[in-house]
Write a structure and sequence with these properties.
elongated, alpha+beta, 3 domains, 24 strands, Rossmann fold, Glutaredoxin, about 15% strand
């Protein structure tokens, strides 16, 4: 076998075949790495693999087209068949030789995440899984090519047939849809021929082990069929041992049956038993928080999914299945809207869209709109005609199914759901949709309220948000807030980037808690406490219960506070305040009548004591703190801290907090110089060197 392997391997690299394959492959891999990785900042090789997949349908047949067809054409196959080497050893030697030319592609792919990892955070587990899936696809495609090469003596025909078979396998989903939009026995059998489909799981970060069993089965079956074809040909040359030939064929049939039965049994297993979620944020798995909530579920809950089971959302279905595995108290039923079109009327006046869910427990229920289970980001452009921005495109950027379901379960099983009023009417910020979803998933009810329309903040409110007003409160509005807090209620308040003299009444509310807002904005002189600009603050995080799991002694997590106001703690007779975010000693303010030297408080927790109750207040000194992009710049720490603050003012240690599961890491920014360097090396120099090596070896053999 090793003699055959050596001969074939040398044949690939003493001709242009192996060199051209590697040069072309590395060129296109580098091209798409430059586009998706270096320029677009996407830290996933799955984009590169998906882009070059079709190219490999052309190039992989180059490695197998001459394996047996050339031997047959020049009659050298008879020398092999009369040698003291078993047929399977010949096949394995040639197959491994083709694999050895393909294998260098794998470490090349592995280099790309390592390069991007220099400049940002990369999901290495997902990238490794994508590369592994692509490896098995390549091994299976090469085995098919080896088999087809054994059927003909023309290597061009072998290459074309291999390409046609691989292309046909990639077209199976479209062909099956043309035959029947609904799955039937014929289309299910047809999908067995789909080579490209199974490794799609790997591209999405799911370790679907039946896919690897499928690829191993394809490899074994293709090589056994090759053995069958060559055995028949061999025994037309050798006139003895026919019984042995039939015995070998019988063994092949037995192996074929065993593999088919194994794959059939794998397909009958429940979906949750077939795969392991390796995505960095476990999109198809339960978070620790979700798992804990389901374990503690002590009431019977039924979830009705309003969709035909054949058209169910796979992510939602996977989430619901995993919840049922954890808790026997949860029951899931699929209701086909066509079969029962008025089922929803018992729970809602408006008809929900397909795949929406109704969560029920006793007499309580909550409808989960399907569209709320996914986070969507929009692109906008300015329309001159209307003088407004309009949405031009959108993309699904995250999955919020688990958070929505857990929140609904907590709602229908809880006696009381805290209510939050977001104060409006003073040019306050609106909650970003991602943060609002996270708050609602934590089992809070959020509602906006304009104080002008109410004599007082409603009694059913537990907490108020005042998020960076740019216009001052009038005296009546300020008194409404003070009366609300005097009842032992709580608030989270944010200061905006504006002159403090313009917000006298608003800041007067903070003064009651011993918090003074200084004029101007905070500047940092210590580079360790700001990012790019002295006003883009990365404050010191104090160790306390509010910053648990956010504070690190080595400052490996950061809170981002651009254009923050300086806060100063002063004496208050009936209040105490403590700092949890602080600027450095070298900081100072600019923008007021005079500069004030730091350090300053940038995040404060305060309590005010009344005769019968205590009110609680958290203050953040930057309205930019609330922006989605600012939060993403520190990998979500801003929103993590906000949720901690919410739990603190709620006086609960059992807050349900399941963030939206983003579909991608933050984009990676690569410097222009580095991008140019890697582009030149990976697209130009490496392929050119390989091609020149091949031409040099070929020329020397022809003219040496």
């Amino acid at each position: 076998m090793w003699a055959v392997f050596k001969k074939e391997w040398q044949g690939n690299f003493r001709t242009l075949t192996g060199w051209i394959f590697l040069a072309v492959t590395i060129f296109f891999l580098g091209w798409y790495f430059n586009y998706f990785g270096l320029n677009s900042g996407l830290p996933y090789v799955s984009y590169i693999i998906s882009a070059v997949q079709f190219i490999f349908l052309f190039t992989l047949p180059l490695l197998t087209m001459r394996s047996f067809s050339e031997e047959k054409r020049y009659k050298t196959d008879q020398l092999l068949f009369t040698s003291p080497v078993d047929v399977w050893q010949i096949i394995l030697g040639k197959y491994l030789a083709a694999v050895s030319v393909f294998l260098p592609v794998i470490p090349i792919l592995a280099i790309y995440p390592l390069v991007l990892g220099i400049y940002g955070e990369v999901p290495f587990a997902e990238n490794a899984l994508a590369i592994c899936g692509f490896l098995f696809f390549g091994l299976a495609a090469l085995a098919v090519g080896i088999f087809i090469s054994a059927l003909t003596e023309n290597q061009i025909i072998a290459a074309v047939l291999t390409f046609f078979v691989l292309l046909l396998s990639a077209m199976v989903p479209g062909i099956s849809t043309m035959i029947s939009e609904e799955s039937n026995l014929f289309t299910r059998v047809l999908h067995i021929l789909e080579l490209t489909g199974p490794f799609a799981y790997s591209l999405y970060g799911v370790l679907h082990w039946p896919s690897y069993i499928y690829y191993i089965s394809v490899i074994v079956i293709a090589l056994f069929l090759t053995d069958y074809v060559l055995t028949l040909r061999r025994f037309r040359v050798r006139t003895h041992g026919i019984a042995g030939a039939f015995g070998q064929i019988l063994r092949g049939v037995v192996v074929l049956v065993v593999l088919l039965v194994t794959n059939a049994l794998c397909s009958t297993l429940p979906e949750e038993k077939q795969s392991i979620d390796m995505t960095y944020n476990s999109i198809r798995s339960l978070t620790e928080e979700g798992h804990r909530i389901m374990e503690l579920l002590d009431q019977n809950v039924t979830i009705y999914v309003l969709v035909d089971p054949e058209q169910k959302d796979e992510n939602l279905d996977a989430t619901l299945q995993r919840m049922q595995e954890v808790s026997s108290r949860l029951k899931v039923e699929y209701i086909d809207p066509e079969a029962d079109p008025y089922f929803y009327l018992s729970y809602s006046d408006a008809e929900p869209v397909p795949n929406s869910m109704i969560v029920t427990c006793g007499s309580k229920s909550r409808v989960i709109n399907y569209y709320d289970c996914y986070q969507v980001s929009y692109d906008y452009s300015y329309d001159v005609a209307t003088g407004s921005y309009i949405a031009t495109d959108y993309k699904v950027s995250g999955y919020d199914g688990e958070g929505r379901i857990v929140s609904a379960i907590s709602y229908v099983t809880s006696a009381h759901v805290p209510k939050i009023y977001c104060i409006t009417g003073h040019s306050e910020l609106e909650l970003e949709e991602e943060l609002k979803s996270r708050i609602e998933n934590a089992m809070y009810e959020v509602e906006s309220i304009n104080l002008l329309m109410h004599d007082d903040i409603p009694e059913d409110g537990d907490i108020i948000f005042i998020l960076g007003p740019f216009a001052d409160f009038n005296l009546e509005d300020a008194e409404k807030v003070e009366r609300f807090l005097a009842k032992g209620k709580s608030a989270i308040m944010v200061t905006a980037f504006t002159d403090s003299s313009e917000l006298e009444n608003y800041y007067g509310i903070l003064a009651d808690y011993g918090i003074e807002v200084l004029p101007g904005v905070v500047y940092e002189d210590d580079a360790a406490y700001y990012n790019t600009e002295p006003t883009f603050l990365l404050p010191e995080i104090e160790e306390c219960d509010l910053t648990e799991k956010i504070y690190t002694a080595t400052r490996t997590r950061f809170v981002y506070l651009p254009f923050a106001k300086g806060l100063q703690l002063v004496e208050a007779a009936d209040a105490t305040a403590s700092t949890f975010l602080r600027s450095s000693r070298t900081s100072h303010t600019k923008g007021g009548e005079e500069e004030i030297q730091g350090p300053f408080s940038l995040g404060v927790y305060a309590e005010r004591y009344g005769a019968e109750n205590t009110s609680r207040l958290v203050v953040f000194s930057s309205d930019y703190f609330m922006y989605k992009d600012i939060n993403q710049a520190v990998n979500g720490t801003n929103y993590d801290l906000f949720m901690k603050a919410l739990a603190k003012v709620s006086q609960t240690d059992d807050i349900v907090d399941i963030p939206v599961k983003s579909y991608s890491y933050n984009s990676i920014v690569v410097a222009n110089g580095a991008r140019s360097f890697f582009s030149v090396v990976l697209i130009g120099i490496v392929p050119a060197v390989l091609l020149l090596c091949g031409i040099g070896i070929w020329y020397r053999r022809r003219h040496g």
